[in-house]
Amino acid sequence: MSADSDRPATSAATASSAAATAATASPAAGTAAAAGSLASAAAPAGGRRAGPPAAGPGARQGWSARLGRLASWDVGVIVIAVLVIVVASASVENFGTSRNFTFLVLDLLPIALIALPMTFVIVTGEIDLSVASTLGLSSAVMGSLWNHGLTIETIIPLCVVLGAVLGAVNGLFVTVFRLPSLAVTIGTLALFRGLALVVLGDTAVADFPGGYTTWVTGTVGGSAVPNVLIPLAALAVVFAVVLHATPVGRWAFAAGASEQAARFAGIRVGRLKFWLYVVTGAVAGLAGVLWTLRYSSARADNGSGLELAVVAAVLLGGVSIFGGRGTLPGVLGGVVLLAALQNALRLSDVSNESLNVVTGALLVVSVLVPNLIRRTRAALAVSRARRRGPTSLSPPLPGS
Amino acid sequence: MTTVEDSVRTVPARGAVPARASVLERVLRAREISIVLALALLVIVTAVGHPSFVHSQSIRDILLGAAIMAVLAVGQTIVVITRNIDLSVGSVLGLSAFAAGSLLMDHPGVPIIVAVLVGIAVGAGCGLVNGLLVRFGDVPALVVTLGTLYAYRGVAYLWAGGSQINADELPDGFLKFGTATVLGVPYLVLIAVAVLVIAGVVLRSYPAGRQLYALGSSPDGARLAGIPVGRRTLAAFLASGVLAGLAGVLFAARFGTVDAAAGNGYELNVVAAVVVGGVAIFGGSGSVWGAALGALLLTTIGSALPVLGVDQFWQQAIVGALILLAIGIDRLIAARVAAALKKRGSHVR
User: Fold this and answer.
1) Nearest beta carbon to residue B323 from set A44, A177, A186
2) What is the pTM of this model?
3) Does B272 touch chain A (CB under 8 A)?
4) What pLDDT sits at residue A142?
5) Considering the domain boundaries, does residue B349 fall inside one?
6) Number of domain units in chain B
7) pLDDT digit string (tens) for B67-120?
8) Closest-CA distance of chain A to residue B222, Å
9) Complex prediction ipTM
10) Per-residue pLDDT band at A45 (split at 50, 70, 90)
11) Measured between CB atoms, does B159 come within 8 Å of chain A?
């Protein structure tokens, strides 16, 4: 997040090519990494993409290698997720049943839902740690309004709007007051959860209309496919298309790769981030509604700690915590991998609290491993460049 | 000629340096004074309506709570100054409290100091893991400690299961250590003050301490200046882990009841205390004194709310609002200081 501001600005770029320009916007970082003097300082800013241009003569090879590398993490995660499911079906009792499939989808629903907009937020180089508290406040307000006699048809849109408003609070602090999103969302993590406690205290509201609760937990026509999978899949498609095939997605990548370059390219980075926070809040509010209906229980502590699972799934899916890189299919792979692992362990009688070890470790590993791979690659590139002689150490700068 | 010109030019510049320092110093001191004022106001308002609030018993309770929080806040300050963050302190506290508690439960004859050392060792191990991951893994501290926040807590649950250590299972000497006083001042407070003074002096007057500030202000600059950035970062996380481990033992001694959930959510209060105490979340400025005052303020708010008849459920919301308020004010002050320095700079030229 902070690293972006230190990066050198590139030459003028048009909006359409901003992402591509931003990808090679760090000639200085690239050469520095090749020279090895500032390798670790430049690594967070330059990232993987800064490496290949510095290799000079190997540019063609670099292209295919780069494509291969970009694909490999996402594909790898998806493959591992499938492997986990296959192995667990074979070795864990009751894992492969259709009933368990329904539960698995219901368990991953809130994580998957929030991971969709969270992918955008992290791609732009920001973070939102308040999503679980937004979910909790939405759930608490839902319970309170139900107690006050409102109809469920009014309450559900109200809760989504509430989530959007909470997201707007985050967005306001991050974009208008220009405060670091980490600090802001730690603050709102406490604030929103605190407000949820104020709204509902330690009581629970449980008497939601049966039609809605059974729809959320029910399946499509008696098959194993839960009803909620349909809206989730629809949203996932929408988010994936927006991220990978529309200007909005390209703005997000450009803003995350280099905020300054993106701004010079005419992208309204602040406005983009503000609306991303609003969308994240709205989706978290919706997740709060679904959570409440699924367990037919509105409680202030609903979804406590869920932000970890969401961030873990997004990073596991190959999104860079420094912004500018990631794919939505990868994130969905990360969500499924995390949920399948947890489900299999739970069926093997591992307690919920102990599962946190797995989630926490996966979160760290998902950032650690790509970093180590990149470092090893950078070290290899340096030694290769040294062997090739001094000329390859000063390639033509792409920006000049 | 050139020498005269140079000397003429350097005179106002030399004069500007102390003035610049005083602007910053005034800002920092203003933060600490404003916390003290807020604290005094809170105590007076509460005490006027409810005189029992300033009874020695209730003051002692606040000080005991603040002592544990302050030890954590000192460790957090050391990490935050280096432009990192340690979200795992609450879980480290829980793990260390359970380790010290179960040691004393199984071997009641063990001297208290051994329990304290075991707690500190557990904390040091946790802090070392955090530091190694941040230093050698290039993983941002936020991600590492968010992960270990849950991982350490999970380890505590794996170890403790649903079991709980109760006060009657702990040796009396240990529980007395949690409540006993010297000249009316509880041991826990003395320990916290000792930690505070040592950390304060090291950060203020020793090269290692100053290097932490340099590293937080500009990691690249610090590296170019020859500061062992990796080692200092590692040391900061180690210090935070050690202090969280110590806080865990103090927690066990004070409450006597420890389960796997001990210290759950403390990281929020600690970050709040540090930020409210004027430690910039993006590193390079702040003092342990401010952080300790922040911890005292938050603990006092926590005790004053029920006395004032405010629902206890408001407490967390207030913590969140205080974090936002504090970083907002910091931003405002930073902008003001920057503007003032620019003005001063243009005068010189």
Assistant:
1) A186
2) 0.80
3) yes
4) 95
5) no
6) 1
7) 999 999 999 999 999 999 999 999 999 999 999 999 988 888 888 899 999 999
8) 11
9) 0.81
10) very low
11) no
Task: Please indicate whether, in this complex, the C-beta atoms of B328 and A6 are within 8 angstroms of each other.
Answer: no
B154 has a chain A CB within 8 A of its CB: yes
Q: Which domain holds residue B155?
A: 29-319
Whether residue B348 is contained in a domain is answered as: no
Query: Average per-residue pLDDT in chain A?
Result: 81
The least confident of A141-145, A387-391, B264-268 is A387-391
If DSSP states are collapsed to H, E and C, what string results for chain B? CHHHHHHHHHHHHHHHHHHHHHHHHHHHHHHHHHHHHHHHHHHHHHHHHCHHHHCHHHHHHHHHHHHHHHHHHHHHHHHHHCCCCCCCHHHHHHHHHHHHHHHHHHCCCCCHHHHHHHHHHHHHHHHHHHHHHHHHHCCCHHHHHHHHHHHHHHHHHHHHCCCEECHHHCCHHHHHHHHCEECCEEHHHHHHHHHHHHHHHHHHHCHHHHHHHHHHHCHHHHHHCCCCHHHHHHHHHHHHHHHHHHHHHHHHHHHCCEECCCCCCHHHHHHHHHHHCCCCCCCCCCCHHHHHHHHHHHHHHHHHHHHCCCCCCHHHHHHHHHHHHHHHHHHHHHHHHHHHHHHHHHHHC
* B24 at A interface, C-beta within 8 A: no
> pLDDT per residue over A177-192, tens digit each?
888 898 899 899 999 9
Domain of B85, CATH number, reads 1.10.3470.10
User: Which pLDDT belongs to residue B6?
Assistant: 41
Domain contains B10: no
Of B223, B268, B327, which is closest to A41 when you measure between CB atoms?
B223
Q: Which residue has the tokens 């910039």?
A: B280
Q: Is residue B343 part of a domain?
A: no
> A354 to chain B: which residues are within 8 Å by CB?
154, 157-158
